[in-house]
Amino acid sequence: MFSQLQPVATDPILGLMAAYQQDPNPHKIDLGVGVYKDEQGHTAVLKCVKKAEALRLAKEDSKTYIGMAGDLNFNQHIEQLAFGKEHPALLAGRLTTAHTPGGTGALRVAAEFIKRANPSATIWVTTPTWANHISLFQAAGLTVKEYSYYDYNSKGLLEEQMFAELAHVEPGDVVLLHACCHNPSGLDLTFAQWQRFTQLAKERGFTPLVDMAYQGFGVGLDEDTAGLRHLAAEVPELILCSSCSKNFGLYRERIGACTLLTEHSKAAETARSVLLSVVRSIYSMPPAHGAIIVSHILDSQELTALWHQELAEMRNRINDYRQLIVDKFKAEGIVQDFSFITRQHGMFSFLGINKAQIDRLRDEFSIYMVGSSRVSIAGLNHSNIDYFAKSVATVLK
Ligand code: PMP
């Protein structure tokens, strides 16, 4: 049977990572991979996580099954983190959450849930979007369509096109939005655009699915959820997929959550039973470790304060480098306007350079970025930013 299989092409980012690792150039820079790196180019374990892990080791007294919804304490914390403790939807008992294996697990659970609710649903995603959105929803059997989002010319939002296209989305379909730090463009909706989206969702009756993989990486923990909170206060139903990979640095522990907002608390009970049955049929129960670490951090004022500080350090470093890129490019005599980088948020922006320039950066200067010119800003640090700016200036000449 296996002899019938055809090989599947590897993800271009993985190929890029392999090429980077084999490159002997001591000045090489990896701007491909979407993980946070510090000034030393290292993805360190957060101090608050180390402390919570020590606590877990001391306190854990059983390895029995955790249940399909996962860690209930974590679920409560993640709802409060996303919506704020006083959000009317939370106070009304309209939210229900299952912790999942990463944000990807949350999206897959969401996809299966959507299929149960409406087997013929189409899910609409931004052009462009995180590539895995498309393959993941298709693998779950949903129809995926795209709507206009990033304008490669103005580096802003294709606002009128986006809203004109979304005005045709059918009730029963799902529209995916990135809560903040849009991957791959870094371009987020303004609050006014979230309001406009909210109005349209109410008029058309489609269901929003908000993917929040970078809460706290943009402007701040609360600021990054302003659009989501507004939307959730207005629409009857919504799905939120969140991830603790980036903001808690828990990538390999695989911790995220799928939260449903239902029209009223009774509907939340029904939705929860379906959600848990979806979980049961895919992986039965999530792994516990990441959720308990996050719970320990958020249970403790001291650890929460430390987490806020460490998260701010990561966010500020990225935002400082957004400014530094623009300043260094100017200092190198680059005349093109790159100021859009400082208006975008999170780990990524498109440099907006062409394929020949991307190839030259890789082949002549050992600077690696994906073919779309998406750069992962956290790959830059004090020891490589000048080399990066000089190299970009050379290929732009
Ligand atoms: N959504 C988006 C937009 C992402 O960028 C990512 C991670 N790259 C995820 C979801 C999934 O994150 P996780 O590693 O928690 O599965």
Automatic annotation (TrEMBL):
GO terms for cellular component: cytosol
Stretches assigned to the Aminotransferase class I/classII large domain: 27-391
Gene3D superfamilies: Aspartate Aminotransferase, domain 1, Type I PLP-dependent aspartate aminotransferase-like (Major domain)
Family: Belongs to the class-I pyridoxal-phosphate-dependent aminotransferase family.
GO BP annotations listed: L-phenylalanine biosynthetic process from chorismate via phenylpyruvate
InterPro entries to which the protein is assigned, alphabetical: Aminotransferase_I/II_large, Asp_trans, NHTrfase_class1_PyrdxlP-BS, PyrdxlP-dep_Trfase, PyrdxlP-dep_Trfase_major, PyrdxlP-dep_Trfase_small
Gene Ontology MF, one: L-aspartate:2-oxoglutarate aminotransferase activity
CDD domains reported for this sequence: AAT_like
Name of the protein in question: Aminotransferase
Cofactor or coenzyme needed: pyridoxal 5'-phosphate
UniProt keyword list: Aminotransferase, Pyridoxal phosphate, Transferase
Assembly information from the UniProt record: Homodimer.
EC number in record: 2.6.1.-
